[in-house]
Amino acid sequence: MPASRSRHLCSVAAALVLTVAAPATAASAASGASGLREVLFVGNNWDGTADVIKSSGDFAEVGRINVIPDRDQRMAEINADPIKWVYFQAIRNSVGEGHDQFADDMYSTPDGKSVVVSRPSFADVVSIDLATGRINWRFPVAGYRADHMAVSPDGTRVAVSASTVNTVHVLDIGTGKQLGSFATGDKPHENVFTRDGKYIWNMSIGDVNTSLDSPGWDWTKGDRHITVVDATTYKQVRVIDMRQRLDAYGLKDFSDAVRPAVFSPDDSKLYFQVSFFNGFLEYDVAADKITRMKTLPKNPATSEDRTTWVNDSRHHGISMNPEGTKLCVAGTMDDYATVVDRSTLQEGPLVPTSKPYWATVSGDGKDCVVSESGADQVTAIDFATGRKVTSVPVGDHPQRVRLGHVQADWTGPSGS
Fold this sequence. Notes:
Layout: H1 3-17, H2 26-29, E1 36-44, E2 49-54, E3 61-66, H3 71-80, H4 82-93, E4 105-108, E5 114-119, E6 124-129, E7 135-140, E8 146-151, E9 157-162, E10 167-172, E11 178-183, E12 188-193, E13 199-204, E14 226-230, E15 236-240, H5 242-248, E16 258-263, E17 269-274, E18 279-284, E19 289-295, E20 318-320, E21 326-331, E22 336-341, E23 351-352, E24 356-361, E25 367-372, E26 377-382, E27 388-393, E28 398-407
Antiparallel strand pairs: 1-2, 1-28, 2-3, 4-5, 5-6, 6-7, 8-9, 9-10, 10-11, 12-13, 13-14, 14-15, 16-17, 17-18, 18-19, 20-21, 21-22, 22-23, 24-25, 25-26, 26-27
Helix pairs in contact: 3-4
């Protein structure tokens, strides 16, 4: 690499490290606002609903939303278009494990009056009025599948991955109007806004549905990298090829598909999971290198046949407590979740959970909340002790869990 380019990348990395952090969500920004109640939204991907539960304490049910009130109309469109129909069936029979994917990700608007949901099988993003249950606006993404989203710190914009065309759309959360878009690697997945809202990080994961899962065939999975863009111009400012960083750390047999990731509060470290690995890695943003790796226990009952692991996942879901002292990891295919000390990387008790698919932080910051997609419930784990606090039932196949707000007296749409 030319010295001038090396110096440029280092200067960009230094600038980014000052701003990258676990993003403050609209929920956090609106905390304590008059007339609003903080809640957790739980997206039930297979039945097209979202449960709204208390954000801490007993995590009791507050209400439920139907996120596919237009199902008949969307299905009529799909059945009338042979290409859309083929992709719809492909989603059902691959990433959907034989089910349709109706609720991938969601964020509430700052005023707590609407929730915005990405719907993979319908290849769109919709805003749903929380009072009536009706759709405010709909944005069809490019291509044939919508995926993970991220919300800007001020709650005014959402970024959504259009996974079949390697594109991220950035939308006005109030109107659904596209404000910009940018290109990514193959199959864009996770999106993260920096804390000051200046940058968006996107992680592309490549083809996770093929059966070529042995390390020797990893190169067939596609172009996977992290894309960092300016959140105003949507111009690329940095590309991070984790393949090079993994190789430098001696992990040549590891996949470079970055899955869920979380930044440290001091903006200096990224903790991320990769396909097929039971554990996570630590990446120094300024130094641009992997600095530590944590291998977590395997469940003896988990098959070693990689083709049986859902969408190339082994562990999928990671979060960090507000103090930055503890990580919470969802051991998806190993059927447990655990709290890990960030300093020593020592894991705590392995809390039995059924195919946990996501990990987030409770509103009060005391608990890690994981979605148990195999048991249709969410489970809270105390960050301090690593012990289970409670479990509450939700809908079919919960995945993403996001903090948000509703009106203080809300208990569900009037049309429910």
